[in-house]
Every structure is written in C-alpha cells, then in structure tokens.
Input
Amino acid sequence: MEEKTLHIVIVGHIDHGKSTLVGRLFYDTGCLPPDKVEELKRISAEMGKELEFAYMMDHLEEERQKGITIDIAHTFFATPKRRYVIIDAPGHKEFLKNMITGSSQAQAALLLVDISQGIKEQTRRHCYILGLLGIKQVAVLVNKMDMVDYSEASYKAIRAEIGSVLGKLNIKPAYIIPIAARLGDNIAGKSDKLPWFKGPTVLEALDSFSTNEAQTTRLRFPVQDVYDVDGEKTAVGRVESGVVRKAQDVYILPDGTKGRITAIKQFMRDDIGSATVGECIGVTSGSALKRGQIVVDEVSSTITDTIRANIFWLIDKDYKIGIPLTWKCATQEAKGKIEKIHKRFDPASIEVVEEGAKEIRPAEIAEVEIKLDRKVVIDRFSDIPEMGRFVLEHMGHPVAGGIII
Amino acid sequence: MDHLSELENKSIFIIREAYYRFKDIAVLWSIGKDSTTLLWLCRKAFFGKIPFPVIHIDTSYKFPEIYAFRDEYAKKWNLDLIVGKNEEEIKKGMGPTKGAKLDCCNELKTNALKATIARHGFKALLLGIRRDEHGIRAKERVFSPRDENFKWNYEDQPAELWDQYKSTAEEDNHFRIHPILHMTELDIWKYVQRENIPMTELYFSKNGKRYRSIGCKPCCSPVESEAATVSDVIHELETSHTSERAGRAQDKEDAYTMQKLRSLGYM
Output
C-alpha cells in the first residue's frame, strides 16, 4: 500500500448526489460496518425513506430533516492501493465557507453533475474555487443516469457542455463518468446498464490519481515558537519546503540576518542530520529567533508589505475598502487592509462584475492589493504553495482566503 | 515520510500552535487509548515535559484499572494532574441507572468539565476526539470555538484553511482543540505499537472479551475478542466489521444523542 493518503473532496450543486455517492461508495466496498447499515436503515425508515445513503455523511439532525449537507464531514477508507480521506462538501451557497474549508485540504476532487439538470450555479462556483486552490485532478461524475434510462445520447450531450464550461475555468477533467450513485452503477463495479461506457468506475478513477505534489528544493522553515530545551533556546516549527541540514548556513527573514543551524532536535532522537518537508522539529542557530520569522537557504522569497492576490470572500457580509484585517500566512501575522480591488468576479457566472471596485460581496472572488503594516515573507502560490496562501481575519473571524499571484 | 509520521507531525504542529496561542490551556485525559496517545504526542511536542495541566474528569463510575493507570503515569510522566468531579451530583446519587443516561453524562462529565474550566480559567482544551469515531465528530474543526454557555455552533462553524486556525473573537469563551482528529482507530493502534505507548489492560482480551472503547463502567460493554496484545488488536481491526463505539450506551439511545450532548459542551 502507498504511504501517502489521498484527500478527495466531493463537490457539486445542491442535490446532485454528493453525500449519496460517498455512502454508496462505502457500502459497495464493504467499508460500512453492518451495525452502521442497520442504523442507516432504521433512521431511513423513521424518516419514511428507503435506505438513504446520504445519512452516512449527513449526521446532523437538521441535515437529515432538511435533506441537505450543512457542514463538511471527513471519512476514511482504503483500497488495496492506498488510504483515502473523503471530504463531503455542502452544495449550498450559504455554506460555501465549509465547502472551501474542505477543498483546501484536498489534492483531488469528484464533481457531481445531475444529468437532468446539467451545470448549475454551484457547479460553476465550485469549479472556479477548485481552479483557484490549484486542484488539478478532477473527475466529473454524471449522476442519476437511471433517470434518463442510461441513455448514451444524453451522456454525450452533457459531456460536451461540461467540457466547454470546465475549459473556461482551466480545469481538464481526467474522466467524465456516467453513474447512478443511489443504485451503485459504476461506483465500485462496472454497471451492466452502461455497457457503452468504456472508461473507469469511480473507484478506479480514484486509484488512478496521484498523491505526488511538485516540491521545490528551496528551504522554508517558519518559526512557530521558541522553547527552552535542555537550557538551549530552540526554535520549533515545521519544514514547509525543502530540507534543513545541520551546519547549514541560512538567512533569517524578513530581516535577512545570517545564521547557521547548529542542531536539529526531536524528542527521543539523537543526532539528526537533516529534516524534510512536513517534519516538526526544533533548531538551534546561535541567533535569537522568534515566531513569524522564516528560515531560508537563500533569499529567493519576496519581502514586502504589499501583496497582490486573488481572494475568496467567505462571510455573508460585504467588505468595504479600508476595513482593518489581520493577514495570516504560515506563522506570520500582520495587520493591514485591502487598498485596491482590481476586479471582482462572480464565480457562478464566471464573469467580471466590476473593475476598480470599492467593495467585495459574499461568495465573490476578487483580485486585490493588500497593504500591511510591516514587511512579510511570501512566495507565489505557484512556486511554494505553503508560503503563497493566506487567511484574512476581521475581529477574530476568518473572512477570506487568498492565493498570492 | 511514512503514514504514521505524517499523522504525528500534523498533531505536533497543532499542539504547538495551541500552546503558542493559549498559555491558559490544559489537555483532557480520559485515560483511554486516544487521550493517552494525545498525551504522548504532547510529550513529544514539548521534548518530554508537558508545560500545562492534564485534566481527568472523574465521574466516580470509572473502572478501577483506569484509576490505577492514571496514578501510575501521572507520576512517571511528571504530569500536573487536575481531577474534576461533580461532587454535589455524585452525592445526590446521579448515575446511569437513575434517570436518563443523557442527564448523567451531562452532569458528571459536561458540568464537571464546565466547573473545572471555570475554576482554573482555561481558555483552551486539547481533546483526543477523532473524526472516524462518530458522524458528529467527523464534522469538527481542529480549533472549535465555544461560547459562554459552552454551545457548539455546528450550524455555523468558522472556515479553517491551510492550518490557519481561527483567532479569538469577543464571543469565544474557550476553544476545543483537536490534535488527533485526523487519526483513525487503526492509526492509533499502529502508532501505539510503533511508539510503544503504555495502555490500560482493559483493551486486551481476558476470558474472551476486551473493551474497544472505554467510558464509564456501567455504560460500556466489552466485545468478544481474543486480542491479547497490541498486534492482535491491529489484526482484529484490520479484519473486523463492527464499529468502534458499538459497545457504548450513549450512542444507542437515539440517533442524535451524541449531537445533543456535544452541542451542550460534551467532549
């Protein structure tokens, strides 16, 4: 089995069958324990329904009563190839911040499209967000094929529509698979009702995705905190990019002070020579470090107080130019505000709503210039994602996510 | 990096983030496998010495083995142990047989916890809950804010992107922080094996039975099992098809008991 787990987010418009798909996938792969199946049957009967697979994910009473998904749920399953974390996202615009929370943790996505409805508002919105988050591995699942008698002509028509809309959003779907999630067609096994479709099942599509992310060799070690370890000031943190080595010469940004790594520490491990991406370590360097500093091997980062970025607005209140915000990126935090809104988009229509705007409205995406009260260390998202994405907060509430361009 | 190291690093990052943000923080220890693993991760995060208190909410209905294990490792790991107990309700005879189980959990666990938090002024608690344990816990955030009434506002949770955890807003009374949310039951046991983390003997088979999930003695049933060692348990989980909390009474009363308990401040 592969070591790395693949995180998949399930997205798409309301009622196109996201939660049902996840429930069915578990059921068909034998990952749903019999006592859970009994529980689902019992609850489905109480709600006057046949076995409702969506209840596996929709666990809140409010979700089941209204037949909707309010918040994301993570669930775990494995094939002989690898482990998966499946993140079921809500389809309603009101719960967009939850959908984005889920998508921010994923490396691949399954996009559900109901064959009788086609591409809808949230389909476009979700696609736009996947593109912005840099999720390139996408499979489109054309759901509810049973409603059109498994018609190949209907599938071909929607396939053309999907290709044209996703093309505009720079998403190239790896597959466009006809399925019936509720009945299990093309989920874990090939459906005999869809003999004309020669592509993979959902399960095969998942296994064909990759967990490999492009990694740069440039060191980025954001200092998280400073502890006293055996009488030595030790800067702890997680290597976000590259490799840190003992006796390596480094720069400490944003000041640009030179330093040298004298030791790398972990509890109960002696004499660590190097640490790589994702490892939580402590380092000593001879100089006094503090949270928010970024230890790098060479000064290739941008050091600036002005950031140009695409942001997605997460809350249901407007932003007006000048409202104070807190910018958070890796372990850095700075006060600031948006000074310019170059463009604002409505991702549901994929249209620029306004250029040179003064405000950003709920669920919109905007290209902005953020001015901070001090210099910070950033990279482009496309170069080093961990140093090229940030969250904006207002009064302690996250209000936007951003991608540095 | 291997699977277990990836999970471990994720947890350590969260624990350190929590401690940076909150000096008035504590970790909740039920002495079960999850919270004992969480304590182990805290020890690793802080190079051996946990710099904040460890809370045990004692309902007085725990197994004798649990108390013995607690006292042994509180000493060995040099823990700053706080025992939180709702003495008043225990004296009045609150128990799982008297009245509804929901009330008992609420009084002896949630309210005991509330009183402990208030007494010590904690602003954050580390908890060893996991997403795969229960459908409700699958919906949790890593940093989960609670208001003054301890209410979990599950209908409007904050966005949580890229390990940027919500800052404290005016209405946030305290935070529940969940450093092992991303681990499964099987991950826990494999990590226990790799790290050689001590565990209470209740998890291992005696006379053909063992506990898979441990709460209070009257409300937990053992499962049929021959698994007598950690590797037996791993083997059993890899081949078994029942869910972890099948032996927990809380989950059986009605489908939303857990949701109700949790929205009131239950762990």
